[in-house]
Specification:
transmembrane helix (chains A, B), 6-stranded mixed sheet, disordered N terminus, SLC26A/SulP_dom (chains A, B), 2 domains, homodimer, 643 residues, 26 helices, transport (chains A, B)
Chain lengths: 643, 643
């Protein structure tokens, strides 16, 4: 083997391992910072461009509308027009329903599908995302505000706090985006989101029983126990007419979904089904004078577009804790949902989504929304899927939807005042039933028990305690798991695979042959304070076991080879641990050899003088080299003894 | 190359990679649980033994006294006798001083060196650890209790809450030990402890200025700002006689330390110096009638050994939060300190310390202590070092110390009532000065900037805010770092090192040669929810960069090899990420090849059908094999094209 080109400053006799001086702190820090905050290297095609080109690229980067609008044409618009009208027909019933879920006037739900989509069309970078309100965030926001102010007691203050929560949510999303803290959203795992969505959908479904049964009284709590007991408590209020209508709507909506599942091309059936339900409901309510039969209707809806709501924002310290809580939780949940959904659709057409830019777009749309009588919006799954299936080609479909909503607000709003509440309940229930993913939970159970536990913690926590407790429980478990991953990294004993230079885990490859007098251990993960105690114990245990094993063969361990190829980084405590391991083994007359430390690890080992202590001749580039080196010194020692 | 022995159930054509069925859940779970809670495999030599032998071994395991006492002899005892007397001479002044620090009667400090060492001698497994009170925990416990009850207002209640805190601390330590949660202590890194100890030592030193200056009034706050302003506020109370005596004692004690540093054999000079200071101080105070010259003395000390204190324990809900806070923090700090110290001395003589067993011993000694008028004890560094240097051979030295303390309590206690407070302050200051490790902080600064920040967060937090805030700040930062380690694992591009089959990081080994049409990426760390988004971005960025790079050479990427050898585990989200990476790359007509997945990763890939999706022929045991495989299919494709 020929030694590699030695880098400058390196001694020629250092052999094949690169002992070059570590990178200066500034370089290493810059590289770490980049990997932490700019993993997607957003400015990669800026290098070597002139200033005007750079400026143009920067504007296009931060405001994507400048990127897609100049190349937009009539053909693309025809697609977006169709998609926009389709999602508008979904936005109207969803807007009214979810606003009812948040206990705010239904028209706020319609407002929320007018301004935010326009803002998203300018700043958003997903071509498929359809902006709108979502059930889970509507419920969370209502739940948090209800802790301070009951909607029934002071509807105006309640509404003002909802706007305040929306502003806070938007500001948090903007800040996260600007400081590129998308990393926080990474800690909401798929399992947590699956469980959380399932739990939220369950309690929302149960709450809709109020509407389906036509109850007048109900609980303000959201957990399963309170809700079911409330139904039993007020069961004398159940109106059979209402229940019957509700069940009919529900069956209709579920059938429409089945059609889509059977024939994906007929997706529009399920897309316009809610609108049909609302329209039929309105006509029915108007014709039969439904209110007299115990079927409540939405009630007066004001004509006209969003009034400004700057002066509605309320930062009274007496209440501020509630909108802050609502804002923080919904900001993260909405981001996680919106980004995940935008990303999965983008993946289908091999487009890349920059999570941090999406956060900025979401933040801006919620800030502007909070000033124009909108409440929290994000990219809901149902709407986005419809948008995608309807063939949208760009953010223009959101503009089309916004224009449709504007027309509705100007001319059609009063018509919707006849919408029966039971129809809205049926629409919400039908949407929510699709969010309880039994099969995904079962898949988790089959493939990863811990992920299943994380998922169930969110589900059961949300269903039986409260949404924030469920979420925190699940995130807490996921974090503990993350810490356990690093606190207990796996290590394995390697053996030689016959007739190759390969060394692999003897447990995984039972045919791999142990090397006489030598124990080859593969470490993985970073070595640092949280796992260094464990790694020391584990290595010493491997040695003890090996000795116990070899004793019976009359053989002894003389070398321990630590393969650090899988160790991505090491801290001071980690280096101290290697020193301790070495000291413990030297006492037992076992020599420690280091194999293939990676760049960052090597830097740390050099800075801390570990390499000098152990000697450069004890560091090898590959296990094969190391074993040959050990054999050579074994032979030499034997030779010396014989002399 | 000959394929390895195929394991049962494996298809013969699977080649060298082991695609054997995953281990059943129970096996994998048991193995994970063992690694998490029993990394040291405590029962390893139980297998194959008869029941009586097992029972005997179990008793010896849980109660180490049965292990060492039967083989104990007179010769060993002579060593322990000397060591025991030496540490007793240190225990008396330290006991009185630290009790003053905790604002409790000095005799409690003496009691605390009588009962707990006896308990430790039975259950402890370190031969060198000397039990006693420590300054930091004394201050933490006082600080927490002062929040609820001022010592000056109700000394008896204050003392009772101190006992309660000690009991809580002991119970927590016992529970942690029984449930083998030593893993929690792992999260207190060396950097945190260095900073915390330095910060505590700084504020304790500053507080001793009260004693040195002979002030009558002082602040109850512990932060640097409050303490220095208190000194300025009460500077008219400064007594020069007291200050002079204090400085003389301090110089004497520091000189004694210097002697030890110069000639380690004269360690006993610094070991008995505090006792000499106390004795000289007593005689001086008695002769010159010190109190009349503004030099306060300790005051009456009761004769007799520890009275029971069961009825003193106070669980009044009004105050209970204070002892709980004190108990939790001191339990962890005392464990971290005691275990770390026990371990480092054990390492010197190649003895193994089981952290979990130590926790049980500490827990029992504090529980029994709280019932016999003792407050929190652990294994202080200074005392343990003296014990080790004095040549102790077993836990018997603690018994000797306890007997000495008993004799002192019976006969000599009243003599110590003349101890001048200024002497105690000088003893504490002198001990604390040694705990501020400038050189260690500088070492951290030079070798690891983040560790330095963690250390300084603890130091500055403790010095300028409060002890618990400083500790939490530092642990929080350390946890964030731990999570960042897993959220942003390093990945690198590999190249072939000329004339070898080795593939190494091209950044680390600039001579490594890239492979035509192929990008070899090495991933590390576990792949799971917290880093899967990053890994996807990073891999796609590697591919993009490689394409941009190769474009200029008129070459194109056709294969991406993912070397998973360093990936220790993977979760559902991680597998989904691999699927996404594959899908994204297939769109670009790039094929993904997996190299050398480890046991746990392979299991997960099989269970989730990833292997079936990608095809077994796309999984290789080594990079070399993979590249040969790719070349072969490239050639075949070319051949097909030519036909």
């Amino acid at each position: 083997m020929i030694p590699m080109e030695p880098s400058k400053g390196e001694e020629a006799d250092a052999g094949k391992v690169n002992f070059a001086a570590p990178r200066p702190f500034a370089t290493a820090f810059k590289s770490d910072l980049k990997e932490t905050l700019f993993p997607d290297d957003p400015f990669h095609d800026f290098t070597g461009k002139t200033l005007p080109v750079k400026a143009k690229k920067a504007v296009q980067y931060f405001v994507p509308v400048f990127q897609w609008l100049p190349v937009y044409n009539r053909k693309l618009f025809m697609y977006d027009l169709l998609a926009g009208i389709t999602i508008a027909s979904l936005a109207i019933p969803q807007g009214i329903s979810y606003a009812k879920l948040a206990n705010i006037p239904p028209v706020i739900g319609l407002y929320s599908s007018f301004v935010p989509p326009l803002i998203y069309a300018i700043f958003g970078n997903s071509k498929h995302l359809a902006v709108g309100t979502v059930a889970s965030s509507s419920l969370i926001i209502a739940d948090a505000i209800e802790k301070k102010v009951h909607e029934a007691d002071n509807p105006q203050l309640y509404l003002n706090l909802i706007f305040t929560a929306t502003l806070i949510s938007g500001v948090i999303q903007l800040i996260l985006g600007v400081f590129r803290l998308g990393i926080l959203v990474d800690f909401l795992s798929h399992s947590t989101i699956t469980g959380f969505m399932g739990g939220t959908a369950t309690i929302i479904c149960l709450q809709q029983l109020k509407g389906i049964f036509g109850l007048k009284h109900f609980t303000t709590h959201t957990d399963v126990v309170s809700v079911t007991s409330a139904i039993f408590k007020y069961k004398h209020e159940i109106r059979w007419e209402c229940t019957l209508v509700g069940i009919i709507f529900l069956i209709f909506l579920q059938l429409a979904k089945k059609v889509k599942q059977r024939k994906p091309k007929l997706f529009w059936v399920s897309a316009i089904a809610p609108m049909v339900a609302v329209a039929v409901g309105c006509i029915f309510a108007f014709v039969v004078n439904a209110e007299e039969h115990g079927i409540a209707i939405v009630g007066p809806l004001k004509k006209g577009i969003n009034p400004p709501s700057l002066k509605n924002l309320d930062f009274d310290p007496k209440y501020i804790s509630a909108p802050i809580e609502a804002g923080v939780i919904t900001a993260l949940i909405a981001l996680a949902e919106g980004i995940a959904i935008g990303r999965s659709f983008a993946l289908m057409v091999n487009q890349q989504i920059d999570g941090n830019k999406e956060m900025i777009a979401f933040g801006l749309m919620n800030i502007v929304g909070s000033l124009t009588s909108c409440y929290l919006t994000t990219g809901p799954f149902s709407k986005t899927a419809v948008n995608y299936n309807a063939g949208c080609k760009s953010q223009m479909s959101n503009v089309v939807m916004a224009v449709c909503m504007m027309l509705t607000l100007f001319f059609l709003a009063p018509l919707f005042s006849y919408t029966p509440l039971v129809a809205l309940s049926a629409i919400i229930m039908s949407a929510m039933l699709g969010l309880i993913e039994y099969d995904k939970a079962y898949h988790l159970f089959k493939t990863d028990k811990f992920d299943f536990v994380i998922c169930m913690a969110a589900f059961l926590g949300v269903a039986f305690i409260s949404m924030d407790v469920g979420l925190m429980l699940s995130v807490g478990l996921a974090l503990i798991r993350a810490l356990l991953y690093v606190a207990r990294p796996s290590s394995s004993k390697l053996g030689n695979i016959a007739d190759t230079g390969l060394y692999r885990d003897v447990e995984q490859y039972p045919g791999a042959i142990s090397i006489p007098k030598t124990l080859v251990l593969q470490l993985g993960s970073p070595i640092y304070f949280a796992n260094s105690g464990y790694i020391r114990e584990r290595v010493l245990r491997w040695v003890r076991d090996e000795k116990a094993n070899k004793d019976s063969h009359g053989d002894d361990v003389e070398y321990v080879l630590l393969d650090l190829g899988g160790v991505t980084s090491i801290d001071i405590t980690g280096v101290e641990t290697l020193v301790e391991i070495r000291r413990c083994l030297e006492v037992q007359e076992i020599k420690v050899v280091i194999v293939n430390p990676r760049l960052e690890v090597m830097e740390k080992l050099i800075v801390t003088n570990f390499i000098d202590k152990i000697g450069k001749e004890r560091v090898f580039l590959s296990i094969k080299d190391a074993i040959e080196g050990c054999k050579f010194s074994l032979a030499r020692e034997k030779g010396n003894e014989e002399h």
